[in-house]
Design a protein that fits this description.
Blueprint (H helix, E strand, L loop, with lengths): L26 E2 L11 H6 L2 H4 L11 H11 L6 E4 L2 H12 L5 E4 L5 H8 L4 E4 L18 E5 L11 H10 L5 E4 L20 E6 L12 E5 L1 H12 L8 H12 L1 H24 L2 E3 L6 E6 L4 H10 L2 E2 L1 E2 L8 E5 L3 H17 L5
Parallel strand pairs: 1-11, 3-4, 3-5, 5-6, 6-7
Antiparallel strand pairs: 2-8, 7-8, 9-10, 10-13, 12-13
């Protein structure tokens, strides 16, 4: 680091994204991207005419896209916030809302929560998961602090029910409860409807997973109009044109092609179940997931070794080194052919180590 860096940032541990290697062609099951291409409507929308308008600034309000999202989710336009990926919503929320009473979130969850808490010097508490890696909603009821929960959680894929989320929201009425629904389209239960009932609930969403637009960097939030206005204030104080023209166009087309994406989600759910059954047949423990990934461990091979051996065979998965989950690997669900290749590679690895006959 340079000698000019602000002292308060020198000990900051930055978030580590999943690797995007270019040394060879891999089956990428490490960053929870969709295995399916964007819809035809999205491809057609990014036309030469739209590209020709890149000399012009995009609509800073994103009016047309906001209206389309509001209609899809049954809310009003003023209840929708557009963001440069859902990470921007998290960033703005930690900046704008969490300084007074601090914030709580699970100890095993999306790594950016801790990064943002440290970045803004917030008081925070990381609440341990249960023995089975689930979140006990009662740990968050009446904590009288701001709450951030990914539902489904990452990297476990496990979920809270809608009624459990509601208990957390209504028992912390003087604090923001942010529910990160990045993976909700793969079998989870969205709490967007509760935003009409509770003014302290903010729901964070992304196009990166179920909408095949990870490279476009587009997210959105739904909440009370006053919370959304707060986020808009932060946006207009930092980067008013946070959504570029092509991304906005792609997002609008994706909303219009919602059926295509929801059908892809159902295929991923089927592929997830196939992979779960196959890995369990090889002796793995697989947590019950409602996301586009699974979290799996084996007593026959440690997580780091399996990650390395799969990488050598051209398959990338995500391995974490923190003590409690170091034996697990998070495996993105791809096409059925991808998952068959994974299962075959795992089987070969176990056989080579004498664990399978």
């Amino acid at each position: 680091m340079s000698r000019f860096l602000n002292e308060k940032f020198k000990s900051l541990e930055a978030y580590t994204p999943g690797e995007q290697p270019k040394d060879m062609k891999y089956i990428k099951l490490n960053t929870n991207e969709s295995p399916f291409p964007p819809s035809k409507g999205v491809v057609d929308a990014i036309s030469a005419d739209e590209v020709g308008k890149l000399r012009l600034y995009p609509d800073p309000e994103g009016s047309e896209l906001k209206s389309a999202l509001a209609e899809l989710y049954g809310v009003k336009k003023e209840n929708v916030f557009l963001s440069n990926g859902s990470d921007e919503i998290l960033n703005f929320s930690f900046m704008a809302f969490f300084d007074k009473k601090g914030v709580v979130f699970p100890s095993i969850s999306y790594g950016f929560y801790k990064v943002y808490a440290d970045l803004y010097g917030l008081n925070y508490e990381q609440i341990p998961l249960c023995e089975d890696f689930s979140i006990n909603y009662k740990d968050y009821v009446g904590v009288e602090k701001n709450v951030v929960i990914a539902n489904p959680n990452a990297p476990t894929g496990m979920t809270l029910t809608l009624s459990e989320v509601e208990e957390i929201v209504k028992s912390n009425s003087d604090n923001i409860v942010l529910i990160d629904e990045a993976y909700v389209d793969f079998g989870g239960e969205s709490c967007v409807g509760l935003t009409k009932k509770y003014d302290n609930l903010l729901v964070c969403c992304t196009y990166s997973k179920s909408r095949s637009l990870a490279g476009a960097r587009l997210g959105f939030a739904i909440g009370n109009s006053e919370i959304i206005a707060d986020l808009e204030k932060i946006k207009y104080s930092t980067n008013p044109y946070n959504i570029n023209r092509l991304t906005m166009t792609a997002g609008l087309a994706a909303v219009r092609d919602n059926d295509y994406y929801m059908n892809n989600c159902r295929i991923i759910e089927e592929n997830r179940e196939f992979t779960k059954v196959e890995l369990e047949g090889l002796g793995f423990r697989v947590l019950p997931s409602k996301a586009n990934f699974i979290f799996a461990e084996s007593d026959d091979i440690d997580g780091g070794t399996l990650y390395s051996d799969l990488r050598q065979r051209g398959i990338l998965v995500r391995h974490f080194t923190s003590e409690r989950i170091k034996n697990f690997n998070r495996i993105t669900i791809g096409t059925l052919d991808d998952m068959k290749a994974l299962v075959s590679a795992v089987s070969d690895i176990l056989k080579s180590k004498g664990e399978l006959k």
